[in-house]
Every structure is written in C-alpha cells, then in structure tokens.
Amino acid sequence: MSWKDKIENGIFKITTGDGKTFRPLWKPGESSIEFNTSAYSFINLEGTLVDRKKPQSSKYPLVFWFQGEDHLDEVKTFLNASKDSRAWEIEHPIYGIINGQPISIKRNDVNYNITEISVEFWESISVDYPDDDISVSDRIQAKSVLVRSEAVKTYLGFQPATSDIATTKRTTVQIAADLIKLAGDKKVDYENTANTAVKSVDKLISSQEATIREQQGIFTSFVGFDASVKRKVNFIKNSIQTLFENTEKRSDKFLYESQAATAISCLCEAAVNPVALDYISRADIDEVVNAIIEVHGNYLQTLDAAQVSRYDIENTWNPDVNLQLSLNDLVVDTIGSLQTLAFEAKQERIVYTEKATNLIILTHRYLGLDINDENLERFRKINNIKNEELFSVKKGRQIKYFA
C-alpha cells in the first residue's frame, strides 16, 4: 500500500484501557525516539566506544476530531474512558499498532459541531523493568552509592599537586554557595557540610580519598532538601557547568568526571523521592525524565571532548570504564522507574472556558473546593491566574487540570 493509500484509506482507531473503541477523524503528525547510549573509553586506545542499547519509548503527538450531532456525548465518553489507568492500543495508518499511555489530553471546542482533541502519547512496553521486590527508592539509592564509590576510585587515579588545591577549593566554594539556596530549614546543617568540604581540600595531597568523599557531601546532602525536583535539576545543571568551567588541567578532568557523576547520581535519587506536588501529572514526570537524559548526555559529550591522544603522555586522559558503566545503569534504571510511575500518575487535561467565569467556579468544577482553600490556591498557581483574572476569567481562556 502506498503512503497516499495509507493516509486516505488507513484506519485510525483508539482502544482505551477499559476496552472502549473510538474511530475519530485524524491528521498526520510527527514522532520522536531516544536511544539508550553509553560511551566507553579504554587505556591505550584512541576514540570512544559508543554502545547503543534498545531505544527508549517513542512519543507521538496525536490530533483528531469528533464531529456530528452527538459528538459532545462521544467526547464525554472518550474522556471518561481515558481515566482508566490501563494502557491504550492505537491502530494508526502510518505508525501501525502502538501501545502506551496518554501523557496529556487537550480539548478544544472553538468550532461548532466539532471538538478537537490533542494527545501527547507515550509508547510503553508491556512488562515493567526491572521486575523485583525491592522498592524503587532503595534500588536507586543502592546504585547511587555504587556510582559514588566508583567516582572516588576514579579521582584516586592521579597524584594531585599543590596547584590542584586552589582549583578544587574554588570549585567547591562556588557549588556549595549555589546549592545552599535550596537548603531551606536545613541551611545551618548544609553550611557545616560545605565548610567541612572546603577545609578538607587543604589535605588533598596527604588525604586524597577523604577529601573527595567530603566533596561528595555537598551533593549527597542536597538530596534531602525540601525543594521540588525541577529546582534540583536546574541547580545540578549549574553545578556541573561550574565543574566544567574548571577543567583547565588534566587533574581537573578527574575532578569533573568524579564529581559530575556524583551530582547525576544524587539527581537520580532526588527524582525517585519527590516532595509534595512534584509529580501532579504525567507531563511533570516526562519533563524530569527529559532533563535527566539531557544532563547525562551533555556529561558524556564533555567527557568525550576532554579526551587526549595517548601519545600526549603528560596530558593523556580517558574516562573510567567502571564509573561510566555504573552511572549508565543508574540513569537507565531511574528513567525506566519514572516512566512506570508516569503511567500511574494523572493525565494533564486542557480545556477552554465556554463563557466568562471566575476562579471559584473553575476550581469547584475541575478540582473541588476545600475548607482551607488549598485547592483554590493550587488551581490558581497551576493556571497562573492573577491580577484582574482573580475576579473574572474571560471566555476562551485555556484552563489546565488533572484527571
């Protein structure tokens, strides 16, 4: 069948988790796919081995319409069916049969007799991985500890000089000064941790292992901060950038590889230990997954670019294989665990107001009012309602809620 026949005569069918089937009108879109990759370097061998593993889940933005005299009833039935947490099966003219979960659902009734639905669809495998009896939090923590242990060994791969003390101390001070902004009521404890880490640098030459473990403390302490995962992601990005800016010498590269790996391991721990309201919807989890992929990918690219020819004996440097293997395992496991969690989370729903209304009515309709007005404030923040809109929300205004 030609591409034209597939588009014109192909079937577009959605079967929701409860078994209901829908055949709306559709239009072509685009899909994206990520691959699990690892980069390994070996002593006395130039270049990097890039090991591409199985691809991650694909994402499909789907746009379709319900129309006709009874289309509103059909839309209502579809939205109610989509609340079932079990996976969907989609038969698509271009993509074939795909199974997965909707991350977000957007509804638009701007045109009479037609309702447009936009779905961010995330393909998923049918069996959760890894399949064991250990909690996600405990498993990720154990793998993070292993990464940090390998990171210490990596840092011990060179003999520091007196000149390395100043660079290491400067980097530690900069990172600690940034991360302390997240500490909240743990600020005093974190200041003590940071001061201990800074002072330990003076013993870099005589107690190299003890020094690097104290440096790791500025990252491991931040895991328990009562701050959102998204804020932690941004601060980790900044911290790794600080490490990158201080990679002038061969010895700096050892510090970068070790400490950036430690930072990523702590980010993975934080991601599977969210605070309240971190993961309201599947879209929130998807954002964190993409951030972890981005941080790890940039880290690997930096390591690859930092390598020096083995013929340059004084400056030669290559990433540590054991550290990179353990870090890759941690990142892949974290992403897989978050994707599983995403499918159990709520879907993001987007609608447009049919007429002029107000914050109280909207909160009552989509979230429900409570005694302490917590839902009112939560709904206001989610939709960025402020100033004049606190009293009057115009017709056609986009509204976000979760179901």
Please give a quick description of this structure.
The chain is an alpha+beta fold and 403 residues long. It has 12 helices and 11 strands. Helices cover 47% and strands 17% of the residues.
Could you characterize the architecture of this molecule?
- By secondary structure, this protein is of the alpha+beta class.
- The protein is built from twelve helices and eleven strands.
- The chain has helices at 3-9, 71-81, 136-155, 162-179, 187-200, 208-220, 229-245, 250-271, 282-306, 321-344, 359-366, 374-382; strands spanning 13-15, 21-22, 25-27, 35-40, 49-55, 59-67, 88-92, 96-108, 114-123, 348-352, 398-402.
- Residues 30-56 and 127-131 have low confidence and may be disordered.
Characteristics:
9-stranded mixed β-sheet, single chain, alpha+beta, 17% strand, 403 residues, two-stranded antiparallel ribbon
Structural topology:
Elements: H1 3-9, E1 13-15, E2 21-22, E3 25-27, E4 35-40, E5 49-55, E6 59-67, H2 71-81, E7 88-92, E8 96-108, E9 114-123, H3 136-155, H4 162-179, H5 187-200, H6 208-220, H7 229-245, H8 250-271, H9 282-306, H10 321-344, E10 348-352, H11 359-366, H12 374-382, E11 398-402
Parallel strand pairs: 8-10
Antiparallel strand pairs: 1-2, 1-7, 3-6, 4-5, 6-9, 7-8, 8-9, 10-11
